[in-house]
Amino acid sequence: AAPVVHIAAVNKDRSFDDYQRIYNTIAEKIREEDEYDGYIGYGPILVRLGWHSSGTYDKNDNTGGSYGGTMRFKLEQSDGANNGLGNARAFMEPILKEFPWISHGDLYTLGAVCAVQELQGPKVKWRPGRVDMPEDTTPKNGRLPDAANGADYVRNFYARLNMNDREAVALTGAHCLGRTHLKNSGFDGPWGAASNSFTNEFFVNLLNEQWKLQKNKAGNMQYDSPKGYMMLETDYALVQDPAYLKIVKEFANNEGAFFKEFASCFQKLLENGIDYPKDAPTYVFKTLDEQDL
Ligand code: HIF
Fold first, then answer.
1. CA atoms of 171 and 76, how far apart (whole Å)
2. At what angle do helices 151-160 and 165-172 cross, to 10 degrees?
3. Ligand 1 contact via 175 beta carbon (within 6 Å)
4. Whose CA is closest to atom 19 on ligand 1?
5. pLDDT at residue number 3
6. pLDDT tens digit sequence for 38-74
7. What is the CA(15)–ligand 1 centre distance, in A?
8. Nearest Cα residue to 44 out of 177, 171, 191
9. Residue 185 CA: which ligand 1 atom is closest?
10. What does the alpha-carbon distance between residue 81 and residue 98 come to, in Å, rounded to a whole number?
11. Cα–Cα distance between 264 and 252 in angstroms, integer?
């Protein structure tokens, strides 16, 4: 079969200001509802919603990905890897009511970009044009990654998303945000101390903490440190593999290099499988701080 083609549909009636308005509405709601998940707030789970909407992509046939907004269907929501994302979708519901013209794919990816930026991460370029597709285009469950795996699995998984080693390591730095929850994934604990601030702490902790592989309360294996931090086996794989380790050391020592690489491969992750016409606009949103809001 011919590969699937997803062409961004640029809505000529909408301008940068319309999307910045949605960005601001999401950012203000993150700031307002700061008590969520033990005062971590909604930023991290919005990053997870945006990436899980995109992470079904398969470069071999161009199926999956964020374009069709199929995360709005039960089939995709019921993938075990998406446990807990109901909270993020519920967060987005009033935003969709207020801006019914935006597609689910555009909204969920814009939410992830907003969260990264509002949590002091790098500016991530964003482009509109995803179109809600019918239910029968929903990818089958099982395309999102399983954390109980080592470096070979990680490399193969990211290759399906068209990501090389440097991109795979940079993306994983997003695990500075948020935490694992026993009731969602069967893992337990945060990756570091500053769970709602986007930094290179993930790489620093990976190199500097005393990690011990042990069974958690749910019977799953994870690395734990005396400070109460955790690493998934797929995270720890980045120090076990020599090619990955070199990049982890670079990002631990150079936050600017991490931010630069993350900004470009996170945009790529959110846009996988979409063809943008030459005249499609690219937006860089202002943070609330930059607007004195
Ligand atoms: Fe995660 N990730 N991720 N992840 N993730 C979890 C939580 C978050 C993987 C597993 C898990 C990426 C890649 C991978 C975030 C962002 C990104 C959880 C815990 C698991 C198990 C969920 C829960 O229990 O609530 C695996 C196996 C990955 C590939 C190897 C991305 C790069 C790091 C692509 C990415 O951006 C964020 C943010 C969270 C925190 C969510 C929260 O509710 O706090």
1. 22
2. 100
3. yes
4. 180
5. 73
6. 999 999 999 999 999 999 999 999 999 999 999 999 9
7. 32
8. 177
9. 24
10. 29
11. 18
ipTM: 0.99
What phi, psi does 223 have (nearest 5°)? Answer: -90, 130
From the list 6, 52, 104, 175, the catalytic residue is 52
CA 253 to ligand 1 center in whole angstroms: 23
Instruction: Report the top-level CATH class of 151-260.
Output: mainly alpha
CATH topology for 16-143+269-291 is Peroxidase; domain 1 (1.10.520)
Going by C-alpha positions, the residue among 102, 112, 94 that lies closest to residue 50 is 112
Active site residue 191: yes
- In the annotation, is 126 catalytic? no
pLDDT tens across 218-237, in order? 999 999 999 999 999 999 99
Contact yes or no for 139/56 (Cβ under 8 A): yes
Would strands 212-215 and 189-190 be described as parallel, antiparallel, or unpaired? unpaired
Q: What residue spans define the domains of the chain?
A: 16-143+269-291, 151-260
- Give the model confidence (pLDDT) of 78-123 as tens digits: 999 999 999 999 999 999 999 999 999 999 999 999 999 999 999 9
Q: Residues, the chain, total?
A: 293
